Recover the amino acids of this structure.
């Protein structure tokens, strides 16, 4: 990715820290926090958080990040994401319940590092 800007002039490198931050930043001690309904990363408005390694195990279970154990200060953003996932699952089930199994992990997780149960 570091070489892409040299390949074409159609790519811009942003200095906006609120774009595409993820678990790799949180594990280094950086903080994502919510204030009055808006999310921030290191004080910058959060545009996109990369939930890398997130997997639905079943309709009621998820692995938040299958690569590394998340620190406690990551709990708030992942809990908000789980609530959003739960809402989407309910919406999909209302239209096409048969599609839910296709969204789930099709094999046993190798190791659960950040397992969570979704609310029922």
């Amino acid at each position: 990715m570091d070489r892409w800007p040299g390949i074409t002039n159609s790519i811009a490198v942003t200095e906006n820290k609120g774009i595409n931050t993820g678990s790799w930043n949180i594990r280094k001690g950086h903080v994502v926090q919510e204030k009055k309904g808006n999310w921030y990363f290191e004080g910058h408005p959060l545009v996109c958080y990369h939930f890398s390694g997130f997997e639905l195990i079943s309709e009621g279970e998820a692995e938040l990040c299958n690569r590394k154990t998340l620190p406690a200060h990551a709990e708030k953003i992942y809990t908000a994401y789980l609530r959003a996932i739960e809402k989407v699952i309910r919406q999909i089930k209302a239209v096409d319940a048969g599609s839910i199994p296709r969204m789930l992990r099709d094999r046993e997780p190798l190791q659960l590092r950040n397992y969570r149960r979704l609310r029922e």
Notes: The chain has a mean pLDDT of 87. The longest strand covers residues 19-22.
